[in-house]
Amino acid sequence: MYSLSSIKPDEFKSVQYTTKDKVAYITLNRPHVLNAIDQHIPKELYLSVLLANDDDDVKVIVLSGSGNAFSSGYDLKQYAEGSERGVAGSQKMPWDPYIDYKFMGACTEAFMSLWKSYKPTLCKVHGYAVAGGSDLALCCDMVVMGDNARIGYPPARVWGCPTTAMWVYRIGAEKAKRMLFTGDLIDGKEAARIGLVLKAVPEEQLDDEVERLAKRMVNVPSNQLFFQKQVINQAIENMGLSSTQRLATFFDGMSRHTPEGVQFQQRAAEVGFKKAVLERDSGDDTLWSGMNSKL
Questions:
Q1: pLDDT in single tens digits along all 295 residues of the chain
Q2: 288 neighbors 266 (Cβ within 8 angstroms)
Q3: Quick one: which of 107, 159, 116, 158 has its CA closest to 135?
Q4: In which region does residue 284 sit, left (phi positive, over 0), alpha (psi from -120 to 50) or beta (all else)?
Q5: What is the largest CA-CA distance in the chain?
Q6: Cα 17 to chain center, whole Å?
Q7: DSSP string, the chain
Q8: Is the Cβ–Cβ distance between 34 and 69 less than 8 Å?
């Protein structure tokens, strides 16, 4: 699909790719918007994973975010406020699920390059990993969070469904329902306690902890790392991961075009995306007037 010689990381717009001491570092690099996922991040992430897998000197991949957070999710402000009408993230009605699925399916596949990578992927989360940012983090083999970092999928309340569907595979049906029926955020300590992530440490220790774990793995032969990863991944894939993600990707598009989803976008156009999100996540259904069904 891509000629590796044509991939030029120094020309990436939203991701930085570097290597050092047998580790490839993929860094989301839009700190001014808390590394919100734009049109460039999925492709540049995918290309970075390709480069790392082709580099015999790389044993482990570390994914992180620059600035004050890992990722605040998809950069949906323009779409929700109506300035990008007609794009896949927010189409004019009637909604075309094919257009939506092509767009969101491509993003999901790009994120899943971390899961499918021949080499172990380790995610470092500080600040926030929310909405699409949590999708991205949970595709990695292991996640280490800062104690006070926050993770969750608030659009589960209105206007979203996590397309990578990793919640249930990481924490089981009941805890996944608890997270996605509420859209709540939990901190790193709670995420580690319920098994969503590998470990949580004080933020000032986060870099050292991730480096320690990466260095422990780089002393293992690449073939051994590959064998163990494939066996474990196959067990998850046998549970129907691919078909679950296909359904979740369709439902994500549907959720943005339900009566409530359309009203959420109308509200965002009126008062701004940030305020509309705060209203949605407050749980006060009186804020949503004019609907036959309450949120």
A1: 677 878 999 999 999 999 999 999 999 999 999 999 999 999 999 999 999 999 999 999 999 999 999 999 999 775 665 554 444 456 777 888 999 999 999 999 999 999 999 999 999 999 999 999 999 999 999 999 999 999 999 999 999 999 999 999 999 999 999 999 999 999 999 999 999 999 999 999 999 999 999 999 999 999 999 999 999 999 999 999 999 999 999 999 999 889 998 888 888 889 988 898 999 988 766 555 544 444 4
A2: no
A3: 107
A4: beta
A5: 61
A6: 18
A7: ---GGG--GGG-SSEEEEEETTEEEEEE--GGGTT-B-SSHHHHHHHHHHHHHH-TT--EEEEEESTT-SB--B--HHHHHTTTTTBTTBPPSSP-HHHHHHHHHHHHHHHHHHHH-SS-EEEEE-SEEETHHHHHHHTSSEEEEETT-EEE-GGGTTT---TT-HHHHHHHHHHHHHHHHH--EEEHHHHHHTTSSSEEE-HHHHHHHHHHHHHHHHTS-HHHHHHHHHHHHHHHHTTTHHHHHHHHHHHHHHHTTSHHHHHHHHHHHHH-HHHHHHHHHHT-GGGS-S-SS--
A8: yes
Residues 6+ apart with CB under 8 A from 84: 78, 90
Q: Which residues contact 82 (CB under 8 A, 6 or more apart)?
A: 90, 265, 268, 269
**Structure tokens of 279?**
């209203």
For 90, phi then psi, to 5°, come to -160, 85
The pTM assigned to this predicted structure is 0.92
Q: Are strands 15-20 and 23-28 parallel, antiparallel or unpaired?
A: antiparallel
DSSP string, 232-257: HHHHHHTTTHHHHHHHHHHHHHHHTT
